[in-house]
Amino acid sequence: MAGKYFDEWAIGDTLTHDIRRTVTETDNLLFTVMTHNPQPLHLDVEAAKASEFGQILVNGTFTFSLMVGLSVGDTTLGTLVANLGYDKLVMPKPVFIGDTLRAESEVIGLKQSKSRPNAGIVTFLHRCINQRDELVCQCERSTLVQRKP
C-alpha cells in the first residue's frame, strides 16, 4: 500500500508524483469516444486546424482524470474510503497530443470525520503541469481516508 492514512498527513505536505505520461492520439480518441463527446476540436483534424489552436485539443476531462490518476499511488492508494468531491477545477492552458504531463499534490485541508471515527477528510490541491512547466489543470479533491489502525 502506497497511500497514507489520515493521521500521516499534515497541512502543507507537498508531493511531486514520479509517474509522467505523454498523451497520445489514441488516448484522446478513445477517451473522447468512450465518453460520447462529439466535440470536433477533439476528433476532427480539419476543424481543429481551422480553430485558434491549429491542432487537435486533448479532451479536458481526460487531462483532469489523468491528473487525479497520477496522484493516487502516492496519496490514497489502499487508504481511500471514498472521493467526496472535486472543486475549483480550472484548465488555464490547453493540452495537445504529444504533451508530457506530470502532477503535484499539496494537502490544503484536514478534518476529522464526525460520522466515522476511523476516518478523516483530506483535501488535496492537485496540479497538472506540461513539459513547458505550464499549469494545464488544477483542482481541489476532498477524500475520506482511513485513520491508522
From TrEMBL:
Domain of life the protein comes from: Bacteria
Entry-linked Gene3D superfamilies: Hotdog Thioesterase
Transmembrane segments: none
Domain MaoC-like: 10-121
UniProt protein name: Dehydratase
